[in-house]
Amino acid sequence: MSKNTIETIGYILKEEKFSTLKQSIIPNTFVLETQNPFPGYHGKDLPGEALVPEFVFFVTKKKYTTEEIARATRNIRKYLGKDIDVARADLNIFNKTYPAIRVKDVEDFKAIVELQNCYKSEGFEFAKQQSVETTGLINIQKHFYLQDEGDGIYTDLEDEDYAYFEIPSRLNFEQFRAITLKVKNSMEVRKFDVALGLFYRRLGVIDIVRVYDKNMKLDNLKSIKERYDNEVKKLLLDSFK
């Protein structure tokens, strides 16, 4: 691993449009799909336009730890003989938090029920189905494999469409939403999606913004970061008035 390469853990907090998936699942279990996984992105080739949902959430009967999910996932990878992109998630819908397993990039609908059955075999229990079609917040606990580009900017070594940059202070989601609106209104190119997040590092936590853009360019990232930095600093100054 090079000096500029970072492997760490953290979370991503974002707003999603959820709907209940009722096909290709274990009967009467609660499975959600995202209707538009990148709501701020308006470019071509949006992954969510595919027939199979890019992100699926198995809502569980209880909250399982990251370790429990990781150990089960390791066994399932060995059994299936392929990699699967899985993370622990908490979904906030109707002011209630639902624990879930987030699965990314399933190849077809058969794979959804197959994965469900694999986790069931590992002892996981799923919540009973509910009919949902609404917007909510999702907190995804995940690992990150990054390239440190300097000046508080990081590119994702596992997916070139993702990048991250540091922000000066912690924001709640309402503050983040308001700042994002100001930032996008100040830019000519707005076809990127953002989410709030955090990295755990040896010296403490780092508050970040995740950027999704199919045409990621470092200069654009620097411009977006500069605008967020300015807006966050204004918010901090206003808090002292």
Q: Mind summarizing the main beta sheet?
A: 10 strands, antiparallel
The tally of structural domains comes to 2
Helix count from the secondary structure assignment? 4
Helix and strand pattern? EEEHEEHEEEHEEH
> Would you tell me the overall average pLDDT?
90
Strand element count: 10
Low-confidence stretches: 40-50
Q: What shape does the CA trace take?
A: globular
Can you give the helix content as a percent range? 25-40%
Give the N-terminus to C-terminus distance in angstroms.
46 Å
Q: What is the gyration radius calculated from CA atoms?
A: 18 Å
Report the sheet-strand fraction: 35-45%
Structural class by secondary-structure content: alpha+beta
Write up what this structure looks like.
The chain has helices at residues 66-80, 109-121, 173-185, 218-239, and strands at 5-20, 31-34, 55-59, 85-93, 96-104, 133-150, 153-156, 162-166, 193-201, 204-212. It is α+β, with helices and mostly antiparallel strands. It has 2 domains: 10-138, no CATH class; 144-239, Gyrase A, domain 2. Strands 1, 2, 3, 4, 5, 6, 7, 8, 9 and 10 form a 10-stranded antiparallel β-sheet that branches. It starts with a strand and ends with a helix.
